[in-house]
Amino acid sequence: MMSATSPLALTHFVTLADSFDKNKVTPGVLGFIVFAVIGGAVWLLMKSMNKHMKKVDFVEQPEEGEAGTRASAASTAAEPKTG
């Protein structure tokens, strides 16, 4: 159902739409707010990621079964063959 004010409201929007210069349309305040919120969210995520990455220990401890095989393979590969 349409009320009596609906056509009147639509005519106001049509006249506002005609007054815009289509070559100078900018994002405006809403675009800035959205961009600022996204930037703040990225900053907070990077801050949190750095905090979590500082907790990570990157030194890998070899397992007991692999320690002997890696050491012997490294020593044989390092020795030059003469002959």
Map the helices and strands.
Elements (H helix, E strand, L loop, with lengths): L5 H14 L8 H28 L8 H15 L5
Structure description:
- This protein is an all-alpha fold and 83 residues long.
- The protein has helices at residues 6-19, 28-55, 64-78.
- The protein starts with 5 loop residues before the first helix and ends in a 5-residue tail after the last helix.
- The model has no long low-confidence stretch (mean pLDDT 75).
Based on the model shown, name its key terms.
single chain, 83 residues, mainly alpha, 3 helices, 69% helix, rod-shaped
Question: How would you concisely characterize the structure shown here?
Answer:
Helix content is 69%, strand content 0%. The protein is mostly helical.
Strand content: under 5%
Number of strands: 0
Q: Which residues form runs of ≥5 with pLDDT under 50?
A: none
Q: Given the structure, what is the number of helices?
A: 3
Query: Roughly what percent helix?
Result: 55-70%
Average pLDDT, to the nearest integer?
75
What is the molecular shape? rod-shaped
CA radius of gyration: 34 Å
Q: Span between N and C termini?
A: 100 Å
User: What class, by secondary structure content?
Assistant: mainly alpha
Helix and strand sequence: HHH
Largest beta-sheet details = none
